[in-house]
Amino acid sequence: MSIFGAETIGTALLVLLGDGVVAATLLNHSKAQNGGWIVITWGWGIAVMTGVFAVNQFSGAHLNPAVTLGNAVIGNTPWGDVPKYLGGEFVGAFIGAVLVYAAYSNHWRVTEDPGLKLAVFSTAPAIRNTAANLITEIIGTFVLVFAILAFFSDKATAGTNLGGLIVGLLVLGIGLSLGGPTGYAINPARDLSPRIAHAILPIPGKGPSDWGYSWIPVVGPIIGGILGALAFDLFYPG
After folding, report:
1. How many other C-beta atoms lie within 10 A of the C-beta of residue 75?
2. DSSP-derived secondary structure letter, 236
3. What's the pLDDT tens digit per position in 60-74?
4. Is 145 buried (19+), middle (13-18) or exposed (0-12) by CB count in 10 A?
5. Where are the domains of the chain?
6. Domain 3-235's class?
7. What tens digit of pLDDT does each residue of 66-112 get?
8. Which of 32, 162, 201, 235 is spaced 20 to 30 Å from 209 by Cα?
């Protein structure tokens, strides 16, 4: 399987299950409605685990432009492969979002709040402050990329073949500890592609897609991912 194909499949699974758990807890008349933050963070952790296990053997399962760019900056990923990774990640995230729309087709019309509908697809800050929101996304993605590189620099850990579970639990931890301020996008594709899907899809009663905020969950994770990779490269022996 090609890098593009693997990243498309893996990221589609990630967003389908991740945005799916948000839809389950937010949309009216869902059996999981009001499940709460713990359900959402666990759902996202399992979503990441699923995507990683599904395609790790083919592409290393980046599933996240911040991970791809961080690895490229320190030489782990050839720059010539970066467009294949990014293309698959953004396309896959869009596909996953469309599948969530289809899966919850009966629930959009009975959910009146347009903010809840947007929240299924993309993140938004609890308190809107550009600098603070950007810093939160930088910190969260720094932890993600630094920790992934640190974990798997240990050959014993890398040899367990439990990479998907390890990364899924890491994402769970980031969500529980750092997700409160912004909803922890920590992944430009996970936020931007579903936001585009929200703008395009015929969702009844939807509001605007909040493009004024949309750059923060893209730029913040890219900065955080690159800084996390550089910090790993600086402090860990080659």
Report:
1. 11
2. S
3. 999 999 999 999 999
4. buried
5. 3-235
6. mainly alpha
7. 999 999 999 999 999 999 999 999 999 999 999 999 999 999 999 99
8. 32
